[in-house]
Amino acid sequence: MVRLLLSVLALLTQPQGHLGAEVKAYSQKTVTNACTLVMCSPVENGLPGRDGRDGREGPRGEKGDPDITSLKQQVEALQGQVQHLQAVFSQYKKAELFPDGRGIGEKIFKTGGFEKSFQDAQKECTQAGGQLASPRSAAENAAVQQLAIAQNKAAFLSMTDAHTEGKFVYPTGEPLVYSNWAPGEPNNNGGAENCVEIFTNGKWNDKACREQRLVICEF
Ligand SMILES: [Ca+2]
Ligand SMILES: [Ca+2]
């Protein structure tokens, strides 16, 4: 008790000391805060007005559907739009692929109708954003064959065995997952057949890359 009294006494006898400074700082802070709230703004800017009264209550809105009903309606609307787009897309795809393209699954084969060496043919397709035809199934091979028949020309495929003789791979280096070699092929005839052509009968033959063959790209 005596110690407490002494402490209070000590504080009261130091008005210019630490406590005094704190009290002063607190007062200033309070005044500053008060100014930002009400009307102590600098005189040259004028005094801010008081807050206005609350406005009238607005008219009542219509009773809303539960969220789930609204979402269902939106989904149904989107389904309708998607169906419409699918129909339009299908129509455009047919028109676009006539007469020099074929669609199979999500893959599209298209021929430029001209013949090039393998290297130039490959360049044509990659510059167009695709690659040379790489049929990976009987169905895809049949689609490429139809284009060869339509042009009455044999066409280059993308695969080569330039890296390892006798081992044909796709441009990615992946080994073949499908092939349709003609009887006796690939025979690396003359020791220099590293590219693949597809005949109008759908069969494959390894062929010299410098030969000119129909360009068929896939996208
Ligand atoms: Ca070869
Ligand atoms: Ca051959």
TrEMBL record:
Coiled-coil region list = none
Keyword terms, alphabetized: Calcium, Collagen, Disulfide bond, Gaseous exchange, Hydroxylation, Lectin, Repeat, Secreted, Signal, Surface film
User: Out of the domains of life, which is the source?
Assistant: Eukaryota
- Signal peptide limits: 1-20
Q: Name one Pfam family in it.
A: Surfac_D-trimer
User: In what ranges is there compositional bias, type Basic and acidic residues?
Assistant: 50-66
Q: What is this protein called?
A: Pulmonary surfactant-associated protein D
Species name: Tupaia chinensis (Chinese tree shrew)
